[in-house]
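check this one:
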Amino acid sequence: MTASAPEPGLARALPHRVVVLARGRGLRMRAPPTSDAAALTPDQAAVADTGAKAMIPVAGGRPFLDYVISGLADAGFTEVCVIVGPEHGAMRDHYSSGEAPHRARGQFTIQSEPRGTADALLTARDFAGDGPFVVVNADNYYPPDVLAELRRQPPPALPAFSREGLLRNGQVPPGRIAGYALLDVGDGGVLRHIVEKPVAAALRELGDAPVSMNCWLFTPVIFEACRRVAPSPRGELELPLAVQYAIDTMSMRFHVFRVDAPVLDLSERADIPGVVRRLEGVAVIL
């Protein structure tokens, strides 16, 4: 990774707020189990049936979201906003009646309809305030040192993950990584284009381009882009498209820093055993 230092003599407060996107419907997780999912415990299978990926019990029986929040606190974040749907009462109940986070104070906002991640982010406008903030997925566990580096970047910014790093010590299958959004990075490490769902021609043209894992350092300008962006071909208001809209029409310049590290991805039932193995021994301190 490469770091960007602030100008000499200038002190910059690091962002301490993070938004966690947990509104997804979990359709792939709710899909009928395959032989790869035979090792699930009854509790894991029951939660997988609901599609609430962030609440699936992993190492130590803790929900995956506990590890996500603990990792965010390890990186220095002190305030967390989790975006959920109205049907995610079990997630809210877990933190209101159980072990509430203390290192990173939490709150929930509700996206009433699953209209996409850009629309979901709009529900966190008041939480974000007037300063920079980070956005991550609830079904990904990002290395805390990468998140800490993201806090140190001049906003807006994002980590660009190498495919080799994701494969080396991660648990994401190569076929899935091939479908991740590619990052077209120009001179000076500035993001030019996000290529969503790349086809073979794009893969050939961009060669070994890094990929986005939907991990962002934003300024509040992104909310205007989320309000303006058009629906994707899938009919959703998607955050990567809002980023591209901000680049193309609002003169936003996203700084990219390269990362060679894995990210745990909890998208399907077959992911659960591998995620459990890789989180064993990881301390959770909420």
